[in-house]
Amino acid sequence: MIRHGNLLLSGFSAALLLLATMVWRSARPVSPSSSHPSHSAPGLIVNSASLMLPADALRPAHASSSPRDQVSRSRSSVPVREISASTAFARSIRQEGSSPSDDLAVLQMLVTDYRRVHSVVPPAVNSQELARLLMGENPTRSRFLPPDCPALDDEGQLLDRWGTPLSVHLVSDRQIELRSAGPDRTLWNEDDILVN
Amino acid sequence: MNNPFTVQRRSFLQSMGLSLGMTQMLHPLSLLSSANAQESSDDHKALVCINLGGGNDSNNMIVPGQGHAEYDDYIGYRRLPSENADDLPIYGVFADNDTTHFDHLFFNPACRKFQEIFDGGHLACLLNVGNIFARVTKRGELYDELSQRQFPQFYASHSNAAEFWNTAFCEDGATQSGWGGRLAEWVATQAQFNTGASVSPSFSVNSNSSLLAGAQGSVIPYTVRAPGAAPALNDHDYFHADRLADFGAIMSRSAGSSLIPHAPLHADMGRKFLSANDQAGLVGQAFNDTEVNAKIDQAFTDAEASGGLADQLKAVAKLIINHDKIGQDRQFFVVGQGGYDTHSGQLENHPVLLSALANAMMAFRNVLLDTEKFGDTITFTMSDFGRTLVPSLNGTNHAWGGHALIMGERPETSEPGQIEFRPGKYGNYPVLNLDNGSESMSINQEGRYIPQVATCEYAARLAQWFGVDQNSEVLFDLFPELANFYPDTTTQLDSFEANGDLNFLQRVPS
After folding, report:
1. B142 at A interface, C-beta within 8 A
2. B158 chain-A contacts, CB cut-off 8 A
3. B420 and B344 within one domain
4. What pLDDT digit, counting tens, does each position of B336-385 carry?
5. Which of A1, A15, A100, B451 could connect to B401 by a Cys-Cys bridge, CB 3.0–4.6 Å?
6. Among A67, A170, A187, whose Cβ lies nearest the Cβ of B393?
């Protein structure tokens, strides 16, 4: 059953990757004036809602419905299972031709994928925690972000293209905001890039 | 062209001071129609919750000074990543270091008035309180031997943390009623409290709070605007009695309709509007006492207290001082001050918030002292979470445990068996060292400290003072997670009362 599930997942993920890439290409950042980020902070807003993948493509075979059971598994020796649809898409981060906003949109999509598997967003309040959770330190041992992602630094932080750790703002168990400090490397000003 | 009804309806909603966010079930209108002033006993008590929205950096509110064991670490970690040495250390500039009565802890000078309140014997500080559902004292205990998680997963999420505080229930995914609402419902079942009162014992000012959402729907929280109760609408040209009756009928009928989105909420709102309208005249009496109003205005002017929180506390003061006019001897208030999510601009913004908080609490205390109601009132703070000890850029990040303030007055003569306020410091200041591995109280290198006092313990002790002090069954029913901390049912109340960390409200020995 597990092998069958993996085969299906692999085949489906290739199709999804193609579809998601097309949608991603069509996604365009909106101007700061068209939306209001939380905190009333300035910044460029990216909407990644259209990049969501089907939940079935993301659900590992051993996903549990009990949070306690899930945590128990996460602390055991259960191997990490790669969610290939997500990790493949994550490899587009910092690809030639993509923009810093695209990187954030991809990460936000991975957060959405995580939520589809776990029902909640990753409970992270900094980029290091977010990366660990997306790489498999989570209740279902699911990997959404490959460890060789070029946005990761040696300390496991997720950096933007200017080398600043991404700001992670945990609003609720259903909402997380990712923010790049932008070219000036200073958070919470006009050139920030925000995904919500 | 604007729809005139839309405009008037909006102003109607605003005039009632109610918003769309309420989901509380409501008391049958028939029980709420009385608008007559009621009698009140001398046994008056009011709980006033000040919610510091966004997660207060209490590390910057109560600061270890020279002589405190954590002073060096505080200075070491609380440095801005600035190239300018003159900027260091920049958080928590100390008040005068010549006092030791607070164990070398000091208030930030921005909230210097807290020092005055403390010196008057009217302030207690509960250190490192927060959302936990099991006692964990160091990082290595966050998971138990069976790898079960011993902490709420979303303790650092605004929405979840606020819900944990409001419900005093921290298990992930558990939806509970607000503990203030449960407390108000318990009051409603007690013959000795609020006898014959028609107005809800729970009030929120300028907002609705899930803290006041009951479990049974038997008590309707009453929302007032800071300037006062809305006038009754029955005599209004537009909202005369017939229209209001029709409005109620329409809203209640929508409850059974599958065609109307959020139909139950419509019915809920309709009942609340009408009950608030019924009670507007009565509540308005508390706001129309010109002598009291003048005293309140003067106290707030003298304390340089202004702004949103000050206005809300003025309204609360009016309702407390005139509690007998509305027949209440138990009252529960929720007010709020936002802006504490200081990811950036902390140096500029946080002192302003602390100053406004301290000034407003000082004014509130003074006017209640002046009117001899201060001894009846416990004012307490709560906030989503504390913030990281280590700053990031020009702000701080979400953390976990934080410090809370409780303001009250110790009675001149103690009465054996009663729960009484005691000023001072309660709980323990966390060991700030981030580098001692699994022994650390900080779960990471940002300085995110494991709370040592649970939200439910804090709330339960406040509830005891309010009157729930006679048996453990009621207290542990109102606060189910208390049983996680005091599991032995034969001794749980004694064990709970023996916890010295909670002795800001302490039972006088018989």
Report:
1. no
2. 170-172
3. no
4. 999 999 998 888 899 999 999 999 999 999 999 999 999 999 999 999 99
5. B451
6. A187
**What pLDDT, on the 0 to 100 scale, is given for residue B147?**
72
Residues contacting residue B326 through CB under 8 Å, at least 6 positions apart: B37, B38, B197, B199, B282, B283, B285, B286, B319
Mean pLDDT for chain B? 81
Neighboring chain B residues of A190 at a CB cutoff of 8 Å:
none
pTM higher than 0.95: no
Average pLDDT rounded to a whole number, residues B108-116: 86
Higher pLDDT, B65 or B12: B65
Per-residue pLDDT at B437: 85
pLDDT band (50, 70, 90) for residue B89: very low
B346-370 helix and B290-302 helix, angle to the nearest 10 degrees: 140
User: How much is the average pLDDT of B33-42?
Assistant: 43
Record: contact B343-A71, CB cut-off 8 A: no
Residues B32 and B175 both lie in one domain: yes
Confidence at residue B412, expressed as pLDDT on a 0 to 100 scale: 92
Q: What does the alpha-carbon distance between residue B145 and residue B134 come to, in Å, rounded to a whole number? A: 14
Q: Do B302 and B164 share a structural domain?
A: yes
Residues B365 and B219 in one domain: yes
ipTM confidence: 0.80
Residue B158 distance to chain A (closest CA, Å) = 5
CA angle (A74 as vertex; A73, A80 as ends), nearest 5: 105
Distance CA B468, CA B453 (A): 20
Residues B361 and B510 in one domain: no
Query: Residues B308, B226: one domain?
Result: yes
Q: At what angle do helices B112-119 and B346-370 cross, to 10 degrees?
A: 30
Q: What is the pLDDT of residues B374-402, one digit of tens each?
A: 999 999 999 999 999 998 877 899 999 99
Whether B428 and B370 map to the same domain: the answer is no
In a domain, B137, yes or no: no
Please report the pLDDT score of residue A123 as a whole number: 95
- Which residues of chain B are within 8 Å of residue A71 when distances are taken between CB atoms? 143, 147-149
Q: How many domains does chain B have?
A: 2
| Distance separating alpha carbons of residues B470 and B487, to the nearest angstrom | 19
What residues make up the domain containing B492?
416-440+470-510
Binary contact (B343, A188; C-beta < 8 A): yes
CB–CB of B380/B49 below 8 Å?
yes
Contact criterion met (CB below 8 Å) for B12 and B239: yes
* Chain A residues closer than 8 Å to B147 by CB: 71-72, 74-76
In a domain, B209, yes or no: yes
Contacts 24+ apart (CB under 8 A), B411-415: B411/B375, B414/B508, B415/B508
Same domain for B350 and B478: no
Q: Which stretches of B288-323 are DSSP H helices?
A: 290-302, 308-321
Specify if B266 maps to a domain. Answer: yes
pLDDT in tens, B13-29: 333 333 323 323 233 22
Contacts of B393 in chain A (CB under 8 A): 186-187
Q: Does residue B317 form part of some domain?
A: yes
